[in-house]
Design a protein that fits this description.
mainly alpha, Glycoprotein, Type 4 Pilin, 2 helices, 3 strands
């Protein structure tokens, strides 16, 4: 009988304390991780919009104008019917036209803020009522 008492293991109380500490650490860290992931998506959207803008500038350099709203961003991949001197494609990846939340970027030309506007409404796919400019990015 003495032999069983010399073997020591973790008690139920010790295991519960360890699980409580792990749960507490998880509860504290989760909001920070989620915030970091959302911030990374916003930064990715801004970078992609900047890259699309560079493609639009190359399109204008070759064609002499920006694509119309009706032609859309697809004009960077496939020549519109009336685009003489089109020397594209100006964007390599088709998925560049979707924001990190899986929604297509909005493109308007002429834009309200410049010659063209490219923007994303972010994860909600909605503009905030009364907002003058879209929430994520606008160039």
């Amino acid at each position: 009988m003495d032999r069983f008492r010399t073997e020591r293991g973790y008690t139920l109380m010790e295991l519960l304390v360890v699980l409580a500490i792990l749960g507490l650490l998880t509860a504290i860290a989760t909001p920070y991780v989620l915030h970091y992931l959302e911030t990374a998506k916003v930064k990715t959207a801004r970078t992609e919009i900047s890259n699309i803008g560079a493609g639009l500038d190359m399109f204008k350099s070759d064609v002499g104008r920006y694509p119309t709203t009706q032609e859309g961003l697809q004009a960077l991949l496939k020549a519109p019917p009336d685009a003489e001197n089109w020397d594209g494609p100006y964007i390599k990846k088709l998925d560049t036209f979707n924001d990190p939340w899986g929604h297509p970027y909005k493109y308007i030309s002429p834009g309200q803020h410049s010659e063209y506007d490219i923007y994303s409404y972010g994860p909600n796919k909605q503009a905030t009522p009364g907002e003058a400019k879209p929430p994520v990015a606008n160039w």
